[in-house]
Every structure is written in structure tokens, then in C-alpha cells.
Amino acid sequence: MITVVGTGTGGAYDTGVLSGAGLVVGARRHLDAAPLPEAAERVVLGPLAPALDVVAEHLAARRRVVVLASGDPGFFGIVRALAERFGPKRLDVRPGVSSVAAAFARIALPWDDAVVVSAHGRDLRWAVNVCRARPKAAVLTGPGAGPAELGAALADPVCGERILVVASALGEPGGERVERVTPAEAAARDWGGAVNVVLCLDPARALSGARTVAGAAPPPAGWALPEEAFAHRDSMITKFEVRALALARLGPRLGDLVWDVGAGSGSVAVECARLGAAVVAVEKDADGVARVRANAAAHGVDVAVVHGRAPEALAGLRDDPDAVFVGGGGRELPTVVAACARRARRTVVVALAALDRVPVARAALTEAGFVCDGVLLHSSRLAPLPGDVTRLAAANPVFLLWGERPAASSEGVVQ
Question: How far apart are CA 4 and CA 55, in angstroms?
């Protein structure tokens, strides 16, 4: 058996479990702190594969193996690698308190509604987008993805107000630090190597109602909401039939960043946010900006709103989007689509009422290297007539054009 012992966030090592161990594996700080048997071989964890090879040799020789880890080793920890290599039946896991649980306990906040994301060895942008989209997130840090880097990414005014709680050396007597800082303050400091976890909180929404499912809120029961679900002006809103296909092509998900350019009422932006994406809505009219914000608040989602005219306003957006929806038209359309296509990592979707603008929009996408497709949508809705009869009322046709960046030329998101 391999005994996996988790501690370091308030627990203590069980000296009995170390007795008779032929091999003890762990980070240097764990090995230095534990009462190891004199005869035991020690392996300091660095690259994982060589350490697992040594474990295999000791198991083959029928020697006891103990692995020391921080917190709960089954929570983004070494249990996964050990189970994949040796099988769960070979493991005896004795968890401690996870760093995430300990950090939330230190600030007396419940965390059943928190999203936990690992930035260790992964693209930091995914964790950043989770922090932008959710009011309560815990980020497990790593080299090049610590509080300073996370703070620098979230210090962008478009990200909205966030507070970072940096928890370091959890469980270590005299060394533990739990500090609340702004993203800008986090970006300006050298945090060293003792950081366990960073909590990212929206102060206005850090406490929510009782939950049934832990972690991220379940996806909505439906999408392509009726127009009546949004405040809008003079029917200037993407109709739900068009929105349904647009959402299918955008593919918004937790960890994505989506732009809604020419947002109008913000119906597409709000629906993308409901599906878990971080969203920026760009709208040129002041009354439209107010409507987008009101619609986001009404649906309980966070949508960053930029008051400005595309394509000029797009230059001020620091982070490249995964997907873009372009809902406006006009003479600037080819320039707007081209600007979006240059920066979109995956998809651009364009809704057009005027057929003669389709060729220029399509050309802008293809010139940027996208593979294009599209469809002209005609729909007729049931409409009541006097005498308890029903007719079909035709809606204005809309051309939906989309471009997808070939997989070989787009960056994959590590999850």
C-alpha cells in the first residue's frame, strides 16, 4: 500500500503512519518537518515521473511507501497521479484540511458556492476569466501564476471591482499570513513561494443564498430567452430564434471571454454570462449602456460594459476574447468585423439584417483566416386572431454569419 498523508493547513503528522516506512516522498518542507525513520529513503518531489518510478521500485520490493502532501491530497493533489499509475486500491489516503477550506475559514466565509480553479501549470487566462465571471473563486497558484500575475490581469478596470485574499504558509505556526488586497496591490508585490491559494471575491456578492449544488451554479434550465425577459427599445433586440443559433456557434462556457459588440439591449451578453463566460459588452449609446447594465442585474450576472463606438473602443480592451458576437451594422461593419477577427481566439458570429453587407463581412472573416459559414433565418411565430384562431406572423429575416478559426492556428484552453 501507498499511504498518502495530507497536512500543513492545521493538522499534524501521525508519527505512527511513518513507522516502518521504506520510502517517504514529499516536498522538502514536508520531509524536513516530519519525524522520518532513519532507515527510510527520502525522495524530494520535483518532476513527478522519476518519483513515481522510485515508488514503483519500492512497491515491487514490498516496502512501505508514505507520500506527504499539503491539505487534502485528493483535491487537485497527488492522489490523481498515484491512482492513475498504481490504481486506487493500492492507496490509503488520509486527508487533511485543504488550503481552500482553510483560507475561507480564516475569513469566515462559506465556500460551497465558490468555484475552484487551478492555475498551476496552466494558462492563467482561464483562471482570470473564471474570476471575472463568478463572485467567489479560489485560485490554486503556481510558478508564473501567483498573486502578482493574477492581480495584474484583474487590475484592468473592465474587470470590475474585485478583492483578492492571499493565503500563505497556512497552518505554519508564526508564519501564516492571510491578507486582503486589491488586484493592483497584489500586482505590485513579490509574494515569495509560500502562497497556498488566492481567493477572488466580488464584495457585493460574496454572500449568497443557500445552495443545493456546490461550486459553480448549475447551467440555466434554458436559453434563447424571450424578448420580454430583457428591457429593450423599439424591438431593437436580437430575436430569440437568432440568439439560439448565435449561442450555439459562440459556445460560451466557464473560463471563456466573450465580447458582445454593438450590444444594444445586451441580450446576447447576458445569455453568455448565464452560461458561465466572462463577458464584455460594447455599446455606443448611453441609454443602451444603461439597459445592458439593468438587464445584467435583473438576471444576476456580471457583464462589463464599455461605452464606446467600435472599432475604436475595442483597442482599449486588453484581453483577447475567445468568441465575439457582432450585432450592429452600418458602414463601419467590415472594419469592426476585421478588428474582432484579428483578436478572436475561436469564433466570430455576425448578425445582419441587410443582405448586401454579407459579402464584406464574410470577406473580413476569411481574410483573417477564419473558415466561414452562414444561414438566412426565416421564422414565423404563432399569433392569435379573433375567433379563437391562430395565424403565422413572419419575423424579419436575419442572416447569421460565423467564422471559426482553424484548430491548428488557435490556442487550446487547458482545463
Answer: 12
In terms of C-beta density within 10 A (0-12 exposed, 13-18 middle, 19 or more buried), how is residue 177 classed? middle
CA angle 184, 198, 316 (to 5 degrees): 40
Across 11-147, the runs of DSSP E, i.e. the strands, are 23-26, 41-44, 65-70, 91-94, 115-118, 136-140
- pLDDT, residue 413, reads 39
Q: Can you spell out the DSSP letters for 284-317?
A: SSHHHHHHHHHHHHHTT--EEEEES-TTGGGGG-
The string of pLDDT tens digits covering residues 225-275 is: 999 999 998 878 999 999 999 999 999 999 999 999 999 999 999 999 999
Q: Which residues contact 10 (CB under 8 A, 6 or more apart)?
A: 96, 97, 102, 170, 171
321, 259 contact by CB (below 8 A) = yes
Give burial (CB, 10 Å; 0-12/13-18/19+) of 119: buried
Q: Could you tell me which of 397, 292, 294 has the C-alpha nearest to residue 354?
A: 397
Q: What is the DSSP string of 314-378?
A: GGG--SPPSEEEE---STTHHHHHHHHHHH-SSEEEEEES-GGGHHHHHHHHHHTT-EEEEEEE-
Rounded distance, CA 403 to CA 312, Å?
Answer: 22
Distance CA 365, CA 352 (A): 14
Which SS3 state, helix, strand or coil, does residue 414 take?
coil
C-alpha cell at 292: 445592458
pTM above 0.85, yes or no: yes
**Residue from 276, 72, 113, 122 nearest 199 by CA:** 113
Which residues make beta-bridge pairs with 6? 69
Location of C-alpha cell 449561442:
247
User: Residue 384: what are its φ and ψ, rounded to 5°?
Assistant: -70, 150
Backbone phi, psi, residue 363, to 5°? -65, -40
